């Protein structure tokens, strides 16, 4: 059973930084993609940044390019996913979700409609 557990959200001033983490367990060995989505009030959920297993190829939404950095480490059967968020803006305020799908790429995951695995979400608020 795949489980995704996020941590690291909070309140930060504009221009500040936060680091989100996700521990993903229950994966079988193989090809998958894992990443971050976000949903702001009144808006649809959107893919922010995703990374492929194996190649480590990454995908970033245009709105976060140059400000967010995704990375992952594998330890036994657990994937540790992180996203460093710098130069945060008020429009980055949202609930951020860790998400994963087997047999796909970073770009496909970040635009996927039917992502099979989700974390519970963590709130990020950027406000002065």
Report strand %.
Answer: over 45%
Structural class: mainly beta
Residue windows where pLDDT falls under 50 for at least 5 positions: none
CA-to-CA gap between the ends? Answer: 40 Å
| Biggest β-sheet strands, sense, barrel | 7 strands, mixed
Helical content stands at under 10%
Tell me what the structure shows.
By secondary structure, the chain is mostly beta strands. Strands 2, 4, 5, 6, 9, 10 and 11 form a 7-stranded mixed beta sheet that branches. The chain is globular and about 45 Å long. Helices cover 4% and strands 52% of the residues. The longest helix has 5 residues, at 106-110. The protein has one helix at 106-110, and strands at residues 3-7, 10-12, 18-25, 32-39, 46-52, 58-60, 68-75, 78-85, 94-102, 117-118, 122-126.
Offer a concise description of the structure.
The chain contains 1 helix and 11 strands, in the order βββββββββαββ. The chain has 128 residues and is mainly β.
């Amino acid at each position: 059973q795949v489980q995704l557990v996020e941590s690291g959200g909070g309140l930060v001033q504009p221009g500040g930084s936060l680091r989100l983490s996700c521990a993903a367990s229950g994966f079988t060995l193989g090809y998958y993609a894992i990443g971050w989505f976000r949903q702001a009030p009144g808006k649809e959920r959107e893919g922010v940044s995703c990374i492929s297993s194996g190649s480590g190829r990454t995908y970033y939404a245009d709105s976060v390019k140059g400000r967010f950095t995704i990375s992952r480490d594998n330890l036994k059967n657990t994937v540790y996913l992180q996203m460093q968020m710098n130069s945060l803006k008020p429009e980055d305020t949202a609930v951020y979700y860790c998400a994963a799908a087997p047999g796909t790429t970073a770009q496909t995951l970040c635009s996927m409609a039917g992502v099979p695995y989700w974390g519970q979400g963590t709130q990020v608020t950027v406000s002065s």
